[in-house]
Amino acid sequence: MASRRFLGALSRHFRSHKTLSLTLPPLLRPLPSLSTPPPLSAPLRGIQPLDSLRSLVTLRRFSSRPPAKSSDEEDEAEDDDDDDDDEEEEEEEEEEGGESWDGEEEDADASKGSKCIVQRGKSVEEKVKEAAEIGYRVVGSLDPSSENPFKPYEPVFAVVQIGSHQFKVSNGDSIFTEKLKFCEVNDKLVLTKVLMLGSRTQTIIGRPILPDAAVHAVVEEHALDAKVIIFKKKRRKNYRRTKGHRQELTKLRITNIEGIDKSETIAAAA
């Protein structure tokens, strides 16, 4: 395109120079000199420089080419790129932090939760309903000075369900379950979800629960299970996290099993 314009300007210059030479009188016309050729710069004086041609080319906008960005837009794009680079560097620094234990994170989460979340106190009816869904009922508190709920061993067993776990228990056994809410140490409980009862002479199977059966227990303590180490790693990401978890447990002591005839069992034992 530029070369075509250059040739057009050159042809116009020669045409104008030829017309001027024809209109001048013969006395004013320059004599032809055969010895000295005309300088090459003379016919190029009327030609526009290439910079002006480039400016004309840049002023035109074609639909196939995107418009040139201004200086402000370029500065904003550079700022966005710098922000993205800073965010990527911060993420890499956080990932390079290495190992972290759950103690500090749990404390931070607890402090945030205490500030942001306000738990509503539950009524007695709601507590009883949730306990029944888990599979127990709180009868009352045990008085060790006047009561002795523990009985000698009887050859009777029961299969009870507490939450999502099942246990085979007998009189005097102790079991660890997931922490039971709404009960304290030395509280007397009745385990209502009894799936099966058995003795030396008979076995009773529920479909799925025996409505007339019950297992009595006493809460001995609330404890924590052994720590389980949880290690997470992502390949080629420099990501390593080590956390520990201790499950809350409740220890129950079985005191009595009801819903099965024990007379035959006692006679057989005698």
UniProtKB/TrEMBL annotation:
Segments for region (Disordered):
19-47, 59-117
What would you give as a GO molecular function for this chain, any one? structural constituent of ribosome
- Transmembrane ranges, per UniProt, are none
The record's Pfam families line, in alphabetical order, gives: Ribosomal_L21p (PF00829)
Name the UniProt key words of this record, in alphabetical order: Ribonucleoprotein, Ribosomal protein, RNA-binding, rRNA-binding
Which biological processes are named by the entry's GO terms?
Answer: translation
Residue spans of biased composition, Acidic residues class: 72-108
Q: Which InterPro entries match?
A: bL21-like, bL21-like_sf, Ribosomal_bL21, Ribosomal_bL21_CS
**CC per GO annotation:** cytoplasm; ribonucleoprotein complex; ribosome
- Which residues fall in a compositionally biased region of kind Low complexity? 19-34
Instruction: Show the NCBIfam families listed in the entry.
Output: L21
Alphabetical list of HAMAP family matching this protein: Ribosomal_bL21
Q: Which family is this sequence assigned to?
A: Belongs to the bacterial ribosomal protein bL21 family.
| Protein name, per record | Large ribosomal subunit protein bL21m
